[in-house]
């Protein structure tokens, strides 16, 4: 399930934090193969950074419906 | 001629009469809980905080007072000429002999009628099940996109946007503007709901307007609006009027907030909480990884020492040691065997010694031989007068055969 860093950037905050939760739970629960543990940790870091960035830099975007179908 | 009576009618003092009248008024159930319609006049708001006015209609007038604590709660502005309905109880202010209405609540005239209408509609829609708790859906915890239905020019919108900006700037806001009072309002609100429900990315809808009278908020009691909210595809949070205002739209919504700002708060997580939650999660991530690496480390150390023990270098050392051990073992074994041999040999030697013919000689036996050396074993080998050699332990001598006898003769 190796996804790229680019993938993470496209996740919403909710998606990223949900994945991070699951990932951490796995890392805490199982004795994983060394390589898998390393991979999970790396992805976890990327997810965490993405979330932190979203929280830090988000600016409220407001727009108005023009009456046309979205 | 009229005779003066012996017992003239009792004469009450003014105080006694006033008290009597007051008692009469206060014992009347209707007068203790009454709504009165009229027009405000002689409005007075002295520094004490109490409010005084007269309610009048074409043929009568009624003095009214609102005590400071009630006046404080009033949400309506009061003006002379205003047609209102006042609620309270009737009593007598003895000091000036004036009966008054002590007011606790006010509303616009005609709102009484509106309120009845409100109750009727509420009952009807409630029996249809539109307000049932089971119909209410959960509000998404991290909405990506929030739709807002409110007046584009009202304060409610600005309050909500400020709240959202501070709390949850991650969201995208789509404003679907609509009038929030007046005849056009219900249809505009319904159209806005329809439009937002069609927008793919919207996660939740906020319907909001600022405070006002029952009349002002009436659009949110409109049946069309209530149905549109009840059957909305997306969850709806309403924030209409003030804390104490309840409209039918509020009952139909998936969640009612007391004010527009509260609606924005209920629909979103607080960014500060999210920051804390994230840092805790990252902390757990790092700890879990360290623990995982820790156990891997332990395994590696174990492997390394096993590897070391199994390495050629070690192997050679081992071999050498084994060799030494083997040698020692062998030496021991040889020694043992040697000793056995030795004993064996000694034994043999002893036996041999015992069998030594010469040893036999020492016991007294002699060996008789012919002159040519052949050993004489039998009498048939010799003749009388023959020379024989006799060997004894310490030497030998010659001898002549004298007489020959058989064994047993």
Describe this structure in words.
The complex is a heterodimer of chains A (70) and B (409). Chain A has three helices and one strand, in the order αααβ. With 70 residues, chain A is mostly helical. Chain A has one domain (5-57). Chain A is elongated and about 55 Å long. The mean pLDDT of chain A is 81. Among the domains of chain B are: 14-109, OB fold (Dihydrolipoamide Acetyltransferase, E2P); 139-269, Hypothetical protein af1403, domain 2 (Rossmann fold, 3-Layer(aba) Sandwich), CATH 3.40.50.10550; 359-400, no CATH class. Chain B has twelve helices and 13 strands. In chain B, strands 1-2-3-5-4 form a five-stranded mixed β-barrel. Chain B has a five-stranded parallel β-sheet with strand order 7-6-8-9-10. In chain B, helix 5 runs parallel beside helix 9 and helix 6 (185-198) packs parallel to helix 7 (223-230). Chains A and B meet through helix 2, helix 3 and strand 1 of A and helix 5, strand 7, helix 6 and helix 10 of B.
End-to-end Cα distance of chain A, whole Å, is 34 Å
Number of beta strands of chain B: 13
The secondary-structure class of chain B comes to alpha/beta
User: What is the name of the CATH topology of the domain at 139-269 in chain B?
Assistant: Rossmann fold
Shape by Cα distribution of chain B: rod-shaped
Q: In order across it, which strands form the biggest sheet of chain B?
A: 1-2-3-5-4
Q: What about the largest sheet of chain A?
A: none
Mean pLDDT of chain B: 87
Provide the residue-averaged pLDDT of chain A: 81
Specify Rg of chain B, calculated over alpha carbons.
Answer: 65 Å
Number of helices of chain A: 3
CATH homologous superfamily assignment of the domain at 139-269 in chain B: Hypothetical protein af1403, domain 2
The total of beta strands of chain A comes to 1
Number of helices of chain B: 12
Choose one word for the global shape of chain A: elongated
Structural class of chain A: mainly alpha
Largest interface: A-B, 33 and 39 residues
Strand content bin of chain A: 5-15%
């Amino acid at each position: 399930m190796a996804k790229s860093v680019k993938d993470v950037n496209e996740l919403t905050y909710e998606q990223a934090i949900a994945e991070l939760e699951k990932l951490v739970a796995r890392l805490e629960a199982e004795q994983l193969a060394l390589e898998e543990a390393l991979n999970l940790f790396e992805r976890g870091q990327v997810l965490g950074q993405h979330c932190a960035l979203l929280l830090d830099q988000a600016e409220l975007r407001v727009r108005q419906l023009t009456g046309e179908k979205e | 001629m009229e005779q003066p009576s012996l017992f003239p009618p009792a004469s009450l003092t003014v105080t006694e009469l006033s008290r009597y009248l007051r008692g009469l008024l206060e014992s009347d159930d209707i007068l203790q809980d009454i709504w009165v319609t009229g027009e405000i006049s002689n409005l007075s708001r002295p520094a004490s905080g109490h409010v005084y006015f007269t309610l009048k209609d074409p043929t009568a007038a009624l003095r009214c007072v609102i005590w400071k604590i009630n006046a404080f709660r009033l949400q309506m502005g009061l003006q002379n000429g205003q047609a209102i309905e006042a609620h309270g109880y009737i009593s007598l202010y003895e000091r000036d002999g004036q009966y008054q209405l002590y007011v606790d609540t006010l509303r616009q005239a005609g709102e009484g009628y509106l309120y009845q209408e409100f109750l009727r509609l509420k009952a009807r829609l409630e029996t249809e099940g539109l307000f049932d708790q089971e119909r209410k859906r959960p509000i998404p915890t991290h909405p990506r996109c929030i739709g807002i239905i409110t007046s584009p020019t009202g304060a409610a919108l600005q309050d909500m946007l400020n709240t959202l900006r501070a709390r949850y700037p991650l969201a995208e806001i789509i404003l679907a503007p609509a009038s929030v009072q007046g005849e056009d309002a219900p249809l505009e609100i319904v159209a806005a709901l329809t439009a937002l429900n069609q927008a793919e990315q919207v996660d939740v809808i906020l319907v909001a307007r600022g405070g006002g009278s029952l009349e002002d908020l009436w659009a949110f009691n409109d049946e069309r609006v209530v149905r549109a909210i009840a059957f909305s595809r997306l969850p709806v949070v309403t924030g209409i009027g003030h804390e104490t205002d309840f409209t039918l739209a509020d009952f139909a919504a998936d969640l009612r907030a007391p004010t527009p700002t509260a609606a924005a708060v209920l629909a979103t997580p607080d960014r500060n909480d999210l920051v804390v939650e994230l840092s805790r999660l990252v902390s757990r991530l790092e700890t879990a990884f360290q623990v995982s690496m820790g156990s891997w480390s332990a395994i590696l150390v174990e492997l390394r020492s096993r590897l070391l023990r199994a390495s050629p270098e070690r192997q050679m050392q081992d071999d050498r040691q084994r060799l030494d051990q083997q040698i020692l073992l062998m030496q021991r074994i040889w020694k043992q065997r040697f000793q056995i041999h030795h004993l064996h040999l000694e034994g043999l030697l002893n036996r041999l010694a015992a069998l030594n013919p010469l040893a036999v000689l020492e016991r007294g036996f002699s060996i008789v031989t012919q002159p040519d050396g052949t050993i004489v074993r039998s009498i048939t080998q010799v003749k009388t007068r023959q020379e024989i050699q006799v060997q004894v332990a310490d030497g030998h001598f010659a001898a002549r055969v004298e007489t020959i006898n058989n064994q047993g003769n």
